[in-house]
Amino acid sequence: xxxxxxxxxxxxxxxxxxxSMTLGQIAGCQVTGGDKNGGxxxxxxxxxxxxxxDGSQTTTEETTTEEERKSIVSGEYYKQAKVSxxxxxxxxxxxxxxxxxxxxxxxxxxxxxxxxxxxGEDGYLALYDLADLRQKAVVSCPKxxxxxxxxxxxxxxxxxxxxxxxxxxxxxxxxxxxxxxxxEKGTPDSYLMSKDLTGFFYTNAEDGQIYEYDLRxxxxxxxxxxxxxxGKDTTLLGYAEEPEYLVVSAYDNTAExxxxxxxxxxxxxxxETGDYDIVQFEGSGDKYYASxxxxxxxxxxxxETSGEEPGILFPDNTGDFQVGCDVEHGxxxxxxxxxxxxxxxxxxxxxxxxxxxxxxxxxxxxxxxxDETNYIYIDQGTYIDTYNFFAFSTxxxxxxxxxxxxxxxxxxxxxxxxxxxxxxxxDHPSDELKQELRQQAKDIGDQxxxxxxxxxxxxxxxxxxxxxxxxxxxxLTAQSLEVLKNELKKYPDRMLKNLDDGYGSILKIYLAGAIxxxxxxxxxxxxxxxxxxxxxxxxxxxxxxxxxxxSTIHHEIFHAxxxxxxxxxxxxxEGIWSECNPAGFDYDYDYIANENSYDNTYVAFSxxxxxxxxxxxxxxxxxxNEDRARVFEYAMTDQQNDNGFFSYERIRKKLKVISDQMSAxxxxxxxxxxxxxxxxxxxxx
Length: 685
Description:
685 residues; alpha+beta; five-stranded mixed beta sheet; signal; WD40 repeat domain-containing protein
């Protein structure tokens, strides 16, 4: 069994709960555009003029050619800024001497990078020329300016909202302050800007209605005539450009419920949605991005307002979170940060996906020194179309800004998988789709000598102290099947098939929606369970717990492997195993007692003598077989010892005992060929 560490995401989104509209009515997912990596951008953008609020025009810069880009990154400024060990990563000097700096927002500003940041109580707006990484301009801006107060669209202007004075301030090409525009008809409470920077929409704290300040004419007027804010707390979630709608979250104080609807800015039209929580919404032209909460998961949905079916981008890198989203260019940027106390390193990883193809086009991993005083966190990122760069910021002891060159060959991911699924996979999957996924499950089973069961088939699994709930989520099921297929490939041919030894049955793998304890000896919930009951050998995995799904696969498979070893007489010598533990140690031999234990003695990265560290976590101290399964799962999922667990001598020794005993039991492991679980032993301690 694998303990479930999942904590519900919860309704962390303020003011967004219930929606009453079908996303398909405002959505589709066809994002046009060329390849975004590998130096394939070779043409020029058509020069495009955009009207400013005062009638002047901004100009969209031409895309640089490959020759121009190479000339730029080979220049002296980029050579000095290059991050050691990387040909595609550069560190930007913000030219800020103070330590108490914080970055609020980064944005493309023509062919430059704009950054709004604060130093103490003071606010600043700066531009950096990406041709030479030098600071072009810096000006003071209103205090208490945050990311939601900064509006840009990639052209050479930016608009800030000064809350203290109720004014919009527009800055031009060199951050010269061109126009100050006072808001006079109301007090903005929740607000946003149209993509073309011509309409400032806000909810009026005085009457609850929605207003627009037209930056071209200076006129203010009430909009969204179909909306009534009386008795409601209103939040503007997003703006759809074509056709023009506002996504509005309204808490009705009388009914005590929240509803999210899309209101026409000029007309009476209201578009309803289904029973999903919208977390975020952003529109550009007829394309949009929505972050949707459903089934304890947050999904990134991309589509068009044409009414076609949207698509869901669903990467399986469970530690990733969305760092940035560029709806106009059809790119989604994800990142993750991890630290290892044993190796004194921390790793930042980034992936950029094309939301049209659903493929991961670019990938970056960068390692920094680490101790307990210099944690590095990923803050945000933005795409610079002119150069095909991705800029991202980190925070820690001091904020830093990095420029990632997506054109460099080392940025190409080489990942051919498609991570985009139709919206119907989540929203009421058809019987035909379910049957198609059942066939995929059968094929995966046949290829690996096991059976794979999904949807309502889960309820047929034998039960003892746990019950297994079926999942009707076709999206999670499809993703989980893809991951399972790749993980089962790691085992030698026929190894899993040979677990059918007459004691139980062929190994049956059930992908469940939840694993619930029904007995006082059971955990409340579990990520996975393995057992043999009524001559039925099976394992059950909770696919809603994607954060540990891959690890759980190997954890539970090892339980089945060990049970097979015991049946065939290849059991582990507990005397040899106990020698891997500190003198006098004894396991809890009780799941509930272990769950309530907070004793980190001898646990990895805890204080004390490193030579006595013998356990990956406290759960490893519950039973000897759980200890072995935990060691095995990390040997299978951390084959380069990035987490540093196998730098501890006792944990390495445990893996060696496991490996030797498996070699004695399985003919597929000839003792000569390097098995997948042995690879981590090849890395230096």
